[in-house]
Structures are given as structure tokens and as C-alpha cells.
Amino acid sequence: MSKSFPSSVTALHEAVSASTGAAGSAVPTSKLAARLEPFDSYWQAPADVEAGYKSFSAYYRANYLPHIPANRDAKILVVSCGPGYLVDLLAQSGYRRVVGIDSDAAKVEHARRRNLPCEVAEVFPYLAQHQSGEFDCIIPEQELNHLTLEETIVFLQSCRNALRPGGSVIVYAMNGANPLVGSENLAHNIDHFYNLTEYSIGQVLQLAGFERIRPFALKLYVFWTNPLNYVGLIVTGVLEAAMKVIFRLYGKKVTIVSKKIAAVAMRPPAETPN
């Protein structure tokens, strides 16, 4: 049975911090609010898990690689890594210091069969043990909206403390600004607790202590060898252009109306790790 987190952000952060045990000892865990699809596991893999390595490689290459540190010695943590789709792409791209974590041992086993550096771990206890500013980049593969807003802020605060000063986090969520799928994204899964927009994704990152926040759209149609990719690209491009015009007519300066929205943000360079 799931144990609810405390209701306040401060109490939640104290509970997570208190879960850190002595080096090498077992760390007690508290369950996240999500009942069926918790944030610290990956839920978007296709039924044919192996086939996902190729398709997700194209997706992450187009959407994520431009925002990841160029230094191949950067230390990168992939949260909710699942079978290791993003970890696999990073390894293929020459990154040498990558680790993935996921709370589902069965998913991690797929990654281990490919000799990917993934391990079984729950996100809050893991981050509680890595608060000394050791990572250059942290990337959750799962949407933030599988956390409650309170859990989200504590998660991002924990990421900030786990990053070196000047390190970056790359996060994403369902985009509430898309009038075609925004409400359905929220309603179709009981473990989706909210939607974000380009403004509100900046708010949660700002509350967690990040700066230089840059929202960006996540592109769906990045499979250039498939002719149908171009049809989808044209149709969604026209629809999204129309949405932006309509928002402007209503006095709203909305520039990102993709199905999912992401953001990259930096831990302040002069900040001392806690």
C-alpha cells in the first residue's frame, strides 16, 4: 500500500532528506503519489521493447542532444531510464560517464542485457544520497506530470543540489497550451497530475532555484526515412500555426503549442553545493 508524502513542500523535502542512510546501508523509501505509473519508472516503451531502441534514438537525437553538454566526459544522470533508450543514444554519441536509474527491475534488465550502465533505484532516495554537486546534467525520461506539483518542486530542488554549479537539467511535461490534446493528456491517466505551458514550466524550475530557463517544443515527426513523417509534419505545422494565431487574437503570447513541452535550465554557476 502506498504511503502518501507530507502535504507541504518543506515537510516533503525533510522526509526525503531524512531517508538518506549511512554509506552502504539500505535507504528506507516512501512511495510517490502516482498509483499505477510512478515517475521514477519509464512508461512509454512500445510493446516490442527492442524495437524502441531505434525509434527513440531518432527522437532523442533530434530533441535532446542539442541541449546536452558537448563535453563527452560530462557526468550525466538519466532518471526513469527504463530499458535505457536515452542512455543507449548517449553511449553511442561518445558520452563516457552516464548512469541511468529506474525503479522497475524488469525494465532495467533490458538495459543490462545491452551492457548499458543502468541500475535499479527509486529517485528520491537516490538523489538524497547524491547532493554534493557531482553531476553535469540530469535528464528524467519520464514526464514531470507523473509527480504532484509539490513532489515536482522537491524533485527539482534535489536535482539542483545534485548538479555541480553551472550544471543543467532537461525536463518535460504534457503541454496544456495545446487545445486539441491538452485536456485529454490530463484526463486519460489518473497518474497525470497537471499540465504545464512554456510559462509554468519556467515557474516550477524557478521555484526550485534554477536560472537561464529555456523552454522548447518536443518534435514528434523526426523519422526522416518514413514518407508519412512529412505528412504529419505538414499537418501539425499548419495546425500549430493556426493555434498561435488564435491565441494571439485572444491576447495570449503563446509560442509553444506542441503536444509535449520541455525546458533546459541551469544551476546558478556561483552557487555552492549544499
What descriptive keywords fit this protein?
36% helix, 274 residues, 7-stranded mixed beta sheet, Rossmann fold, alpha/beta
Could you characterize the architecture of this molecule?
- With 274 residues, the chain is an alpha/beta fold.
- It has one domain (9-266): Rossmann fold, CATH 3.40.50.
- The chain is 36% helix and 17% strand.
- The protein contains 9 helices and 7 strands; from the N terminus they run H-H-E-H-E-H-E-H-E-H-E-H-H-E-H-E.
- It has helices at residues 9-18, 52-63, 85-92, 105-113, 123-128, 149-162, 182-187, 198-207, 227-249, and strands spanning 75-79, 97-102, 118-120, 135-140, 163-174, 211-217, 260-266.
- A 7-stranded mixed sheet has the order 3-2-1-4-5-7-6, sandwiched between helices.
- Helix 4 (105-113) links the parallel strand 2 (97-102) and strand 3.
- Helix 1 (9-18) packs across helix 6 and helix 2 crosses helix 3.
